[in-house]
Structure formats: C-alpha cells, structure tokens
Amino acid sequence: MKDSNMKKMLLAAIAAVTLAVGPLAVGQASADDWNKVRIATEGAYAPWNFTDSSGKLVGFELDLARDLCARMGAECEIVAQAWDGIIPALNAGKYDAIMAGMSITDKRKKVISFSNAYAATPARFVVLKNSDHADFTSKLESLNLEEIDGDEQAVLDQMAAAFKGETIGVQVATTHENFLREFMGDTVEIRTYDTQENLDLDLQAGRVGMALASMSYWKPLLETEKGKDFTAIGAGMTGGPFGGGVGVGIRQADAALVEKFNKAIAEATADGTVSKLAIQWFGFDASY
Amino acid sequence: MNFELMAEAFPQLIEGIPLTLQLVFLSLAIGFVLAVVIALARLAKDPVLPRLAYGFVYVFRGTPLLVQIFLIYYGLGQFEAVRESILWIVLKEPFWCAIIALALNTGAYTSEIIRGGIQSVPWGQIEAGKACGMSRVLLFRRIVFPVAIRQALPAYGNEIILMVKSTSLASTITILEVTGIAKKLISATWQPIEIFLVAGAIYLTMNFIVTRGIAMSERRLNPHLKDRPLPKRTALDRGVTAASAPAAAVPSKPAE
Q1: Assigned domain for A56 exists
Q2: H helices of B2-144, where?
Q3: ipTM for the whole predicted complex goes beyond 0.90
Q4: Domain-embedded: residue A287
C-alpha cells in the first residue's frame, strides 16, 4: 500500500534496533505487563485514520484501538507519527504499537512483528455501467486466496474465462498487479498506471475495459460524481497475492504484547465489533 | 551499489529497446514528411499559408512535449464525440497517441531546420538552375533540396538525438519502453539509482550509434569537404581568451 520509503525505513530501523532498542526492549519485555500501551497512527489515511477539522485523530483504527485496549485492560495513549518514520520510531521505543493501515508484508516482517490481521479491504474489479461485464456475478461474495478450495477455484476459473482477452488497468507495483500477473497473466492484457487517477480516466474513456483496486478506494469514489458511471463487479478478493491483511505493528522483542493484541483482536472479531466499526467507516465489512 | 540488481535489470530493460526504436523511427519518418510540407508552406508566396505554418510551429515548439502527450492521450479521450468518431480507432491506442505527439513535435522543430537549410542555398545556384531552364519542381528536387539537406544535417542530427530521449515521455501513458520498464522496476525494488544507471547507459549506447550514423552520412553527402584542412591554429586555440585576443590585435581605442 504505502511502501515508498521502505528502504530508508529498513536501514534506519536496522540501525535503531541494533543501537538503541535491543537491550532496552529485552528488559522491558520481561518486566512489563503492559498496563500502559502507546499506539502510533499516521492521521492522514482516511477512512483508516485521519485528522478531523478540529484537529482530532479519528477513523476506523482509532475506534478499534480504544476497543482493543479496553479488552486488554490497558490504558492507551494514541499519538500521530509521520508514515516514513513510523517503523524506526517504534523500534526506537517512542511508542509500543502501530495501527496505521499497515499491511502485513514479508519485507516489514524482517524489521518488526505483527499481530494477526484485524482488517483487510477486499480488491474488486470495477467496470463502466454500460460494459458487457457490468452484470457479472460470481457464486461467492468474497474470495480468500490463502487456501483455495473447490468453490473458490470455480469462481477464479469463471472470472478467468469471462475476462479473457480483456484489457485490465491496475496501479503499478501493487498487490493488485501481483494478483493479475499470477492469476490472469496469460489471458488478459495488463496495463499499469503510475497513479490510480490516471487509471480512472482511461476506464472512463474506455481504453481499459476494467480496473482492479482496493474497495477502500472504490467505495468512496463510486459514491461521488466522478464515479457515477462505474460499478464494482464480482467477488471481493483477499489473501494470497493481496497480502496478509492489516495488523498491529509491534517490536520483535515484545512477544507478550503481540499475544495480548492477538487475543483482543480475536475477541473483537468474534463478537462482531470489528465488522460493526468497519461498516461504520468503510461502508462494508472489512474484518479479516 | 547493488550490482546484482543492475545485472538483473539489464535484460528486462533491453526488452524495451524495440518499442523505443519503433517510436523513434515512426515518429521521425512521419515528422520529416510533415516538416517538409510545413517548411514549404512557411516559404510559400501566399498570404495565409506561411501564417498557418508558423502558428503550428509556434504552438508545438512553445509547449512541453509532456503536456502535448497528456493532452492528446488523456485530453482527447475525455470527449464523447472523439470516442465515438472513427479517429478513436487510432487515439484509443497509447502507442499511436505517442507517435502522433512525437511526430507533431519533431515536425515543428524539423520544419525550422529545413527552412533554414533552404534559405541558406546560395542564390547563384538557384539562378544557374533557372538559367538552364529548370522547372520549379526540378529546381527544388535537383538543386535546392539536396543542398538544403546538407546544410541542415548537423542540426537534424541533434533533433534525432533529442527524439531518442523524448520517447522516454511515452512511459507516462502506460507504454512500457525502456523508461517505462525502468519505472516499473523501481517501484518494485525502491532502488532508482541502479536501475536508472542501466537505463541511462542504454540510451547512451543508442545515441552513440545515432551520432556515428550522422557523422557517416555527413561525410557521404559532403565528400568534397572530407580533406578540407582545418583552419590554422590561432592565438585563440592556444588558450588566449576571446576578450584579450582581439584587444591585443585591434589598435586601442582613441580615448585610451
């Protein structure tokens, strides 16, 4: 999603881990029972986390953080931190957890730990309302590509057959591009765009027949004038090439805190709290 | 410096060369024909044609190529009338939009180069042709055009080199030529220096071949100049500055 500063962050994070945090965190992990947790968010990534007109941090993750903290019996302090320094500052001990729409990726896992995922916004295809594919439906509403079973494979095959020969636009170097190359690379023409806005222009102009992106992007767009000719089709897809969802970023030394978050997330997912908050903020159920 | 990444990127970037060369040659060919027509229109004895031609040159030289590509690709696609017209068959394709923008752009620049070449043909040669009873067309074909091309060749060589580099802008409209592939690799690896170094070397190599080619055709077209001796070395060549050399040669001003 937002990986542009990964290399810088990686270097800084490695330095920070080796120099500062290593000894400090080890001492903390054994002694701390996590009555107090400091959580960082970005505050500039609506509707996940953003700053409202009065300067207050709001969003899906702010509400969820308060709920999770209550479940963990911890007193939480939420701070805003710029995205490009958010991992180094975690490892430098400025706060204890990150909840900032951060996708769980293997690259980040080399530097920090993650809790289990608390949300994932499914990817969906969008076409013009007058397109041949506009009334395309699949048997499943949502498709998790982590372990593909018979029904899921049938839906994938149906999509591959229906979209054969189509030109599909996607933003470059995203998990969505990975999906297209892996699952439809041989049967469709993939056209990559530097920005999602340029892709929207070409979808509107009919140069690409369909576009693939995250529902957290499509949903607000489809409700505006700009997206009035677009419609989302087929199943919402998660897992596999789309990554492991969004989780809480935690220092690698703090295994106990990861456990506490995992327990709280499992409870909040099970009793429907995550779904409720997701529907409130995204307009659809983005729970993992 | 990650040499392994550079080695990995090289074969992938090489795959973009055919598309880059197609963009260069097609747009140069179309642009050259356009340029000759515009140059002749510029020099026509007519109240309207030269102004129209100058207007075209003015617009396409005066606006950035990037803006032209964007307007032709994303701009024209906004209009339903365009999308429903027969032109859409061509304008729908990013490749042809790039060719149109590049050809119009090089056409504007090249027309000025050709105009300069035509106007530099010595009047005496034209008079001689006329005296032999040549028709206007024959005069142009046998005398004016060949001489004008010789005069214009160094400047046109520059234009070819610029065009090789300009094709990189096609990457902004989803075309995966050398720069497009480079950008794609960068957004996947976050290592711009290594990948752009390789891409830069590829452009350098292409332009090396272009410069050799131009030098060769210059020698072929001007064989009589091949053995022309270089001008004698002067004080200027030996490092005396331009400001001091004439001052020493020219008698000092009366006031001093």
Answers
A1: yes
A2: 3-14, 17-43, 49-62, 65-70, 80-84, 88-91, 94-119, 123-131, 136-139
A3: no
A4: no
Q: Does B74 contact A202 at a Cβ distance shorter than 8 Å?
A: yes
A4 touches chain B (CB under 8 A): yes
- Show the domain range for A45: 6-120+244-282
First to last CA, chain B: 61
Residue contact B190–A206, C-beta within 8 A: no
Contact A201/B at CB under 8 A: yes
Whether chain A has a CB inside 8 Å of the CB on B172: the answer is yes
Tens digits of residue pLDDT in B122-146: 999 999 999 999 999 999 999 999 9
The reply to whether B95 touches chain A by the CB within 8 Å rule is no
Chain A CA closest to residue B188: A173
Q: Do B190 and A6 touch (CB under 8 A)?
A: yes
As for how many domains chain A has, the answer is 2
- pLDDT, averaged per 10 consecutive residues of chain A (288 residues), comes to 55 53 43 87 84 92 96 95 80 93 79 91 93 91 87 92 95 83 92 86 94 88 89 90 88 95 96 93 84
What are the φ/ψ torsions at residue A52 (nearest 5 degrees)?
-80, 180
Name the β-bridge partners of A49: A45
| Residue B234 contacts A, CB cutoff 8 Å | no
Q: Which residues, in sequence order, are bridge partners of residue A142?
A: A236
pLDDT recorded at residue B191? 72
Q: Which residues of B touch A194 (CB under 8 A)?
A: 172, 183
Give residue-wise pLDDT tens across range A102-111: 888 776 787 8
What CATH class has B3-226? mainly alpha
CA distance A277 to A48: 11
